[in-house]
Amino acid sequence: MKIGLSAMFGNTPYRDMAFVKSYAATAESLGFNSLWAPEHIVFFGSYDSAYPYKSGGNTPWTENKDPALYDPLFVIAAAAGVTSTLRFGTTVLVTPLRPALLMAKELMSLDHLSNGRFEFGAGLGWSEEEYNALGASWEKRGKRFDEYLEAIKVAWTEDRASYHGEFVNFDDVILKPFPVTPGGPPILIGGNSAAAIKRAARLADGWYGVWMGFDELEPKMAEIHECLEQYGRSAGEDFVLKLNFPIGPQADIEDVLYKVSECRRLGIEEFVLELPIRSRHLEEDLRYWAQLLEVGE
To answer: Cα separation of 114 and 105, whole Å?
Structure first.
């Protein structure tokens, strides 16, 4: 099983673009498989929308009066330039907030820049406030999400691309060069809900879940495998399973190691950990976790 990393950048003055490059280069040198960057375009002082991965629905940054975050595509572009084997992904890009063809162009370019080391983690999002602020309709967002994914694939693979849906319509579009990755970067659907799992099984190359909001992994895996069977698919080469787990500063190490062993036992291809890495002790902290998790061994 591969071990990846997820990290926030731009959220403090110390975690600037220079830190992004140092983080990526150090992670690669220690044998981690990937680096995943989260997205929110804007934040708010308070939310009516409930955060789905935390009891009570409060966001992780509720207590932060000045939340900040770089755009994940720029984070990955910077990190790709100082690495050669480390893979990258978005965790996750809130897909309906951008025009479909613009996103297809940006992700194709990132696929070239990283020489095929990019995976498109796509999500529907949970914040109605963010949708409203960006002029995106909250209504029918699931249907729009589906059309975006379909249209992006068409634009990545057809010489003269056409797509006709309720929300996305274009004819005779040329969006080139084609991605380095044949067919385009792998698309992984983020989210733990039944709808997210169904969408992944129906439209995507894999599932990117978060080990929050449920206690045991085995029932979730059974749900995913059952859904895949309904679409005549199975986990393996054509459908990957990846799972994210945020770890706080007061982490229970035994619990972390238990979750790693469960992921390995149940066929998770990659466990992506959001580690409590201190900005001024980057190499020391990453090396500690690499040794603890037996990365590269």
So the answer is: 14
Of 140, 170, 136, 132, which is closest to residue 152 (Cα–Cα)?
170
Say if residue 280 is exposed, middle or buried (CB neighbours under 10 Å; 0-12, 13-18, 19+).
exposed
pLDDT-wise least confident of 35-44, 58-67, 255-264, 271-280: 58-67
Q: To the nearest 5 percent, what fractions of the chain are helix, strand and coil?
A: 40, 20, 45
At 239-257, the pLDDT tens digits run 999 999 999 888 899 999 9
Q: Which residue has the tokens 């036992």?
A: 265
Alpha helices by DSSP H, listed for the chain, are 17-30, 72-80, 100-113, 128-133, 141-157, 194-203, 217-230, 253-265, 282-292
Cα-to-chain-centroid distance, residue 152: 17
Nearest to 36 by CA among 227, 281, 213, 270: 270
Q: In the prediction, which pLDDT does 57 show?
A: 56
